[in-house]
Amino acid sequence: MAEIKQIRAIKGVRDILPPASAAWNRVEQAAREVFATYALSEIRLPEFEETELFARSIGEDTDVVSKEMFTFRNLAETSEELFAAITKLFPDQFVKEPTPEPIRSFHAELGETVPEKGMRRISLTMPMLAEAMAHGELLSLRPEATASVVRAYIEHGMQTLAGDVKLYYIGPMFRRERPQKGRYRQFYQIGAEVLGQSDAPGIDAELIEMLFAFFGRIGLEGLTLDLNSIGCKECRPKYVELLRAALRKVSPKLGADSQRRIETNPLRVLDSKLPEEQSIIEGLPRISEHLCEDCKVHFAEVRRQLDLRGIAYKLNWRLVRGLDYYMRTTFEITAPGLGSQNAVCGGGRYDGLVELLGGPPTKGIGFAIGEDRVMLSLEAAGKIVAEPVVDAFIVWMGAATQPAAIKLAQRLRGAGIRVEVPPAETKFKKALGLADKLGARYAILIGENEVVAGKFTLKRLADAVQTSLTEAELVAELSKN
Ligand code: AMP
Q1: How much is the pTM?
Q2: CATH number at residue 433
């Protein structure tokens, strides 16, 4: 027999299996609960968008957009789509024609208005048709979600809503990165955004406070908050030029990546982890010394607001973040147990991004938590415990007892108790063994005597203590735990 090729998950993506998936759900549930106490609401977004959305917001020269997006062309699939492509590409090949005479008089006789939308193809060559078929807008799997949130904010006119618009999202992101521990091609983010008219530093600090409330809730400890201000469109360009000039002077001592970034994106040089570049970077001009007055005041107030909330931070002038839209406040949170990919959350202010995407003047700030890394860090700290998925295992003996077992299972499940009931008759010992292996706390034994008496035997598996209970008593007993 020919060997059947086994299909495996592609490089950089993973399955999240039980019991890990339950731990993921608990973390997501904690995010939902904590964020709700800060008056955030969930937004559910599409997982792919027009490529241009990401190019315009994240920036063409960033790694994410220039190398890491999964992009595809949305080819015409239906005749309507093909027709739309043809009319868009070759508008000259179409003329509006008046409605033909027989139709005209038909409508006129009925006293109706005559439709005037007749359109006729004049000539379309095979190469033209081929071009139309290959035409299609470029779409990308989202590499992050802030751009989508901003797009949705504009598209749905959310600026008219009362107060600041506070949203969170949970879901997969896609980047064609080199896979390693803590770095995947499909990974999950839990993110939040606050959009509105105010850029009060209290918003920045409260968002960070919320992050720590969340991390506290899930028991992630040993976190470090790095904080920086990267200025605004007044002071940042001047600083970038200063930095570029300083970098050009030391260029021969830098690696190829950094040398290239001097021209494309000099701020990214500060991100470099290359040991031989560290002493050079330490000697470069620092943004904190070149902030304009407004940015200085804003940053000082962010820090005071963090102090008010008892949140410790570390100033890190090299924290620039990889995406173009950030300005002023930027921050990153690192966690233990992760090796080199130790950033579990990144965020910052992006006033002006809404305008860049065609919306009204709006301030904004947000963050994204890397859920995969949060889970890895929790695991490294021994905080992920597999919980049994069954509370009670019903052991029924003899075909005559199956109806009672089914009815009892339905009643218990209705009360929220997690029940396993063998779908076919199973030997007593085997059933009890399975109950044990599944980690069930109880076995409920149903034999013919029990059915007649209307009482069931509840066996606590930890110590084999048995009690005889009616259905109602069973529900009450099992609901206690
Ligand atoms: P960013 O959107 O690049 O600011 O990333 C925010 C957070 O998402 C990071 O701090 C990471 O925790 C997480 N993250 C980013 N890229 C990946 C990836 N390829 N795999 C896993 N987590 C990621």
Answers
A1: 0.88
A2: 3.40.50.800
